């Protein structure tokens, strides 16, 4: 990596981090009850004695942390997948992760009506893993070829969404509303117990993904080159896919299906930071977090008192920025 | 491609067999459903129409949906085959141009502005306009920027515009709940509940699109070799890309206006047909047309029987039939 590139990359990471922190603080202070930024900062330091402390610490902070973790997880899951599959249209939905989670949740809600809604995240993650494993198993034929993996993934996610639709139609009507709500992808109503369930996944798998960044760079050169450079192709492919499914599955489990971030945050990162995965992964994580944070803010503020699911706005917030990146001349990359 | 499919005669024979099977399935789709009819009923319904319920069902429900399914299925599959060459991405489908989301967005905007006073024909016009405007927008964006045309930029622009349009659509529906009912009708692809004159409205465009696709099939072969080779072989790339886009808009735009967004066919039929007949687009395009029509007609037929007496959305049945084929083909084929 040339020297000027390193400096540029560090300043890019710093800028994005500062934007993210500033935005988070802004999100903590904005809402149906506006809270002065000073009180927000005091709360974060544990020194706020006003009533606003409760709102900040119990309602807004968990929700904002959820947005950060989920946005980052989805973006990294997408980068890993695009690196492994070498197709720019790859996203976690394509492996059947989202579809599997939806079927599992709908099936759970239909079959075990009396059970607590708190099981939903676990069930969703389980469904995501089963679908991804099924996909991998069906695509296995003395090793996994990426195009076969994607084609079978498309088959599986189509089958899963058909199955979801089928369960919705044959099931009772109130269920449909409940499930559709889950499927739009929202993070309202997140409390600390969700964060406790979510953070280990993110904290474990994003650093692991970073450790494998070099391997991804090699794989991006194509299978023959990767093999020639001594890569243990199938093993690292399996591991990277596993990381991706784990991250996407955890995110889907908490938030339902949130589109756009997994597909396009990695592309934004590539436009900003070049093609090395050592940069694509952290930059897309930051961008994913920023986009979801903004989308959730828009959902909370635009149509007050309605609280619109963040999943509706991820593309609305992210797409204009992406288009700008796409069509400004490539200056230095 | 299997060995015995290599000769011209066998390709033609399989295509002819496909057409025959398609016609049989279409006949079955007209005759069978919640109410079963015989050939004689069909004959009488058209020769001596007496206005009875049975005759009405045959002429006003079964016949339109069968014809729409065949035409829409064929259009989507051909449009998909062209898209996959144009973007050089095996995962591309007509929806990558934002055609489906653009059509739905225009419908929802129309409903939000004019309410339920919109007639069905206006909505079909709106859907087509939405599809065309979005596709032209995406194409224009894909052509801009430094470094000339890059398939990746077109693909990403399309994915991005499609996501943006769906986001605006959901937002509009959320703040404007009464339009939800009619909007939902458009957001779930379906070949039922449409009338024959809706098909007639878009038929000229579809025929034009199909003709254009057949004319382009030779150029598509060359384009699939890559830009450099295509240029070297004397292809006028800009013109061909423009014509390809026009064909996709005509075909997929008409399809979404007639039946709403139906996914999967445009993506999957080209793959299945390629496995059957190889990469020569002069054969691939007609095979796609027949296979696409066949898949949607049989899916529509199946959708009436899965959950009697209710009908499931045709998308569910398409998946039921198409996914096993897709997995089989993907497993059998050798990939580099």
UniProtKB/TrEMBL annotation, chain A:
| Location of this chain's protein in the cell | Cell membrane
Q: Into which family does the record put it?
A: Belongs to the binding-protein-dependent transport system permease family. FecCD subfamily.
Matching entries from SUPFAM superfamilies are given as: ABC transporter involved in vitamin B12 uptake, BtuC
Major site of localization recorded for this protein: membrane
Q: Which species is the source of this protein?
A: Paenibacillus algorifonticola
Spell out the molecular function terms from Gene Ontology: transmembrane transporter activity
Topology within the bilayer: Multi-pass membrane protein
- List the top taxonomic levels of the source: Bacteria, Bacillati, Bacillota, Bacilli, Bacillales
Q: Which UniProt keywords apply?
A: Cell membrane, Membrane, Transmembrane, Transmembrane helix, Transport
Alphabetized InterPro entries for the sequence? ABC_BtuC-like, ABC_transptr_permease_BtuC
GO terms for biological process?
A: siderophore-iron import into cell
Q: Which residues fall in a coiled-coil region? A: none
Q: Could you tell me what this protein is called?
A: Iron complex transport system permease protein
The UniProt entry's GO CC annotations, sorted and at most eight, read: plasma membrane
| Transmembrane feature ranges | 12-37, 64-82, 94-112, 118-138, 150-177, 197-217, 238-265, 277-298, 310-327
Automatic annotation (TrEMBL), chain B:
Compartments, as annotated in UniProt:
Cell membrane
Q: Which UniProt keywords apply?
A: Cell membrane, Membrane, Transmembrane, Transmembrane helix, Transport
Kindly list the residue ranges recorded as spanning the membrane. 12-34, 67-86, 98-118, 124-142, 154-176, 196-216, 284-306, 312-330
Query: Superkingdom, according to UniProt?
Result: Bacteria
Among the GO molecular function terms of this UniProt record, one is: transmembrane transporter activity
Tell me the membrane topology, using the record's own terms: Multi-pass membrane protein
**InterPro entries (alphabetical):** ABC_BtuC-like, ABC_transptr_permease_BtuC
Per its UniProt record, what Gene3D superfamilies does this chain match? ABC transporter involved in vitamin B12 uptake, BtuC
Question: A Gene Ontology CC term for this entry?
Answer: plasma membrane
* Primary location: membrane
* GO annotation terms (biological process): siderophore-iron import into cell
Q: Which PANTHER family match?
A: FE(3+) DICITRATE TRANSPORT SYSTEM PERMEASE PROTEIN FECC-RELATED, FERRIC ENTEROBACTIN TRANSPORT SYSTEM PERMEASE PROTEIN
What family does the entry list?
Answer: Belongs to the binding-protein-dependent transport system permease family. FecCD subfamily.
According to UniProt, the name of this protein is: Iron complex transport system permease protein
Q: Tell me which species this is from.
A: Paenibacillus algorifonticola
Taxonomy-wise, where does this protein's organism fall, top ranks first?
Bacteria, Bacillati, Bacillota, Bacilli, Bacillales
């Amino acid at each position: 990596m040339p020297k000027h590139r390193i400096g540029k990359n560090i300043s890019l990471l710093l800028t994005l981090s500062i934007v993210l922190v500033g935005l988070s603080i802004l999100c903590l202070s904005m809402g149906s009850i506006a809270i002065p930024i000073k009180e927000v900062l005091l709360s974060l330091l544990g020194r706020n004695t006003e009533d606003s402390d409760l709102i900040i610490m119990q309602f807004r902070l968990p929700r904002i942390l959820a947005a950060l973790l989920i946005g980052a997880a989805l973006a990294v899951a997408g980068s890993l997948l695009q690196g492994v599959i070498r197709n720019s249209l790859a996203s976690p939905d394509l492996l059947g992760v989202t579809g599997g989670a939806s079927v599992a949740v709908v099936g759970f809600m239909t079959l075990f009506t009396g059970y607590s809604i708190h099981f939903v995240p676990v069930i969703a993650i389980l469904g995501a893993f089963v679908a991804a494993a099924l996909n991998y198993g069906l695509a296995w034929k003395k090793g996994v070829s990426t195009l076969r993996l994607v084609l079978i993934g498309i088959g599986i996610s189509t089958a899963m969404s058909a199955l979801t639709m089928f369960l919705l139609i044959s099931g009772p009507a109130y269920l449909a509303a409940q499930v559709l709500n889950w499927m739009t992808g929202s993070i309202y109503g997140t409390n600390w117990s969700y964060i406790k369930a979510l953070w280990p996944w993110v904290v474990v798998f994003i650093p692991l993904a970073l450790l494998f960044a070099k391997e991804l760079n090699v794989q991006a050169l194509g299978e023959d080159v990767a093999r020639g450079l001594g890569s243990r192709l199938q093993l690292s492919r399996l591991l990277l896919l596993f990381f991706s499914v784990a991250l996407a599955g955890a995110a889907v489990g908490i938030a339902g299906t949130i589109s756009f971030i997994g597909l396009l945050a990695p592309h934004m990162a590539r436009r900003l930071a070049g093609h090395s995965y050592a940069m694509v992964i952290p930059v897309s994580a930051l961008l994913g977090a920023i986009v979801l944070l903004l989308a959730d803010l828009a959902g909370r503020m635009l149509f007050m008192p309605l609280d619109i699911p963040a999943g509706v706005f991820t593309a609305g917030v992210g797409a204009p920025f992406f288009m700008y990146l796409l069509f400004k001349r490539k200056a230095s990359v | 491609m299997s060995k015995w499919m290599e000769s011209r005669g066998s390709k033609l024979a399989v295509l002819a067999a496909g057409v025959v099977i398609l016609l049989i399935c279409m006949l079955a789709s007209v005759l069978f459903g919640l109410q079963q009819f015989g050939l004689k009923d069909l004959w009488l319904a058209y020769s001596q129409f007496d206005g009875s319920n049975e005759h009405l069902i045959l002429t006003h429900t079964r016949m339109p949906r069968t014809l729409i399914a065949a035409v829409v299925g064929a259009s989507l599959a051909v449009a998909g085959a062209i898209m996959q060459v144009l973007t050089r991405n095996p995962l591309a489908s007509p929806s990558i141009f934002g055609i489906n989301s653009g059509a739905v967005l225009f419908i929802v905007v129309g409903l939000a502005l004019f309410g339920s006073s919109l007639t069905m024909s206006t909505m079909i016009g709106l859907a087509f306009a939405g599809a065309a405007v979005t596709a032209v927008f995406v194409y224009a964006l894909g052509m801009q920027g430094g470094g000339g045309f890059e398939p990746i930029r077109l693909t990403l622009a399309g994915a991005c515009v499609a996501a943006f349009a769906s986001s605006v659509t959901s937002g509009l529906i959320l703040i404007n709940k009464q339009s939800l009912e009619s909007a939902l009708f458009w957001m779930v692809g379906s070949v039922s509940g449409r009338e024959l004159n809706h098909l007639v409205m878009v038929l000229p465009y579809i025929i034009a699109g199909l003709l254009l696709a057949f004319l382009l099939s030779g150029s598509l072969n060359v384009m699939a070799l890559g830009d450099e080779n295509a240029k070297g072989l004397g292809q006028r790339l800009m013109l061909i890309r423009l014509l390809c886009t026009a064909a996709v808009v005509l075909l997929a735009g008409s399809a979404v206006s007639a039946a709403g967004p139906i996914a999967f066919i445009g993506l999957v039929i080209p793959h299945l047909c390629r496995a059957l007949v190889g990469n020569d687009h002069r054969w691939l395009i007609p095979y796609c047309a027949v296979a696409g029509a066949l898949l949607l007609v049989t899916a529509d037929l199946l959708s009436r029987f899965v959950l009697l007496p209710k009908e499931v959305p045709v998308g569910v049945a398409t998946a039921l039939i198409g996914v096993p084929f897709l997995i089989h083909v993907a497993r059998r084929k050798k990939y580099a």
